[in-house]
Each structure stands twice: as C-alpha cells, then as structure tokens.
C-alpha cells in the first residue's frame, strides 16, 4: 500500500525533528545539563509549577528555562522574577515546540552564558495535550501535567502524552473535594496507558505533594551528575 502524501510528509517531518532532537541532546550531554520537557493542556498549571520549582531549588541547582507560547512573553516574564535565564520562544500558529526552535533557544542561552554552568534546563512547552508529545526537543525526560479539572478520561482520550511521560503530575488536587472526580480513577487510567510512569499528586495552592516533585527533580539531576562523573573515570 502506498502512503498518502500527507502521511509521508508527517513521517519526514518527525524524522527531521528527531535528528534535531538528538543534536540538541548531544549538546546537553556535553554540557552536563539534564533537560526536561514539561507538557500539558492549557491551564493545567505548568507555569505556576515552575514558579514553585524555581523558588525552591535555585539555591541547590543552576537552572535555565525555555518558555514556549504561541504569542506573548507573559509566562516568561513571570519566571524571570526568579532571577534565572528565561529564553522565550513564540511559535505563532504552531501548537508545539520542536527541536529546531529549541536549538535556537539554546543558542541564545549559550551566547549569554556558559552552558556548562547549568544543571537543569526546563522547557515549558506550548499548552496542548496532543502535539508536544510527538515532537522531541532533545529532552532526557518528559513531564506531563493533568489537572483534576480536566476529568478522569483524558489519559484514555489523548493517550500519546501519557504513554510518553516519565513523570505525571496530577495538579490542582485542592479542588478535588469540589468536583465529581476520582483521583484514583485518573491514576488507574494513566497506568492503563503507561504502567511505569511516576505519578505525583500536587497542589501549588496548598503545597501538598510539591516536595515529592522536588525530590524527583533532585534525583534526576543527581543521576545525571553521577553519569557525567562516571564518564570521566
């Protein structure tokens, strides 16, 4: 069976993007940076999670952010208040970041800073529950967010992001008592898509669960550091 033109074009785009992602990852590995791709639908709480993360961990790690939005630098400006480098990328009509955009972002970062000084690069992707999961940017791990306000069925209706995630944060758990929502069912649906994903329940309002998220990040950074040390021995 012959592929349609659209199908062949999609495969070629993904292949080209994957090559760019591998190129980006090679830079991160050379610099000793761990890169995380943070993804969710709009309004799930990515930016406020990064605000809490920067407030808690900038004394422990040197962190930079690439902030993706279709328009404006509103979220980027929120994160700049934490005195970390924030590279804003406006994607226009594109509903996700891709490896070429992120390559431009890390080029800007490397122009102003020594990238080897950083421990962690957080890439906040465009709010979208579909496309970001299919376009790698060079990340070492994918972090997905799902708000309790989005319902229990989203992992089943939009499976790719949950299948690809290394860590899933169930956010806004403080709202659960006011909703007809079963968080255990959300977890069960996620596990159906991805049995091995780490699931962390958090509330940025009450701070519940945030320390578990911080510890996951600490382990990721320290594991990356250990690998770098081992490569030198």
How would you describe the overall organization of this protein?
This protein is an alpha/beta fold and 233 residues long. The protein has one domain (27-213): Rossmann fold (3-Layer(aba) Sandwich), CATH 3.40.50. Helices cover 45% and strands 17% of the residues. It is built from 8 helices and 7 strands; from the N terminus they run αβαβαβαββααβαβα. The protein has helices at residues 5-31, 46-57, 74-80, 99-112, 154-157, 159-164, 183-193, 210-232; strands at residues 34-39, 63-69, 86-90, 120-124, 141-147, 167-171, 198-201. Strands 3-2-4-1-5-6-7 form a 7-stranded parallel β-sheet, with helices on both faces. The longest helix is centred in the N-terminal third of the chain and has 27 residues, at 5-31. The radius of gyration is 18 Å and the shape is globular. The relative contact order is 0.16. Residues 1-9 and 229-233 have low confidence and may be disordered. This is Hydrogenase nickel incorporation protein HypB. Pfam families: cobW. Belongs to the SIMIBI class G3E GTPase family. HypB/HupM subfamily. Keywords: GTP-binding, Hydrolase, Metal-binding, Nickel, Nucleotide-binding, Zinc. Residues 37-200 form the CobW/HypB/UreG nucleotide-binding domain.
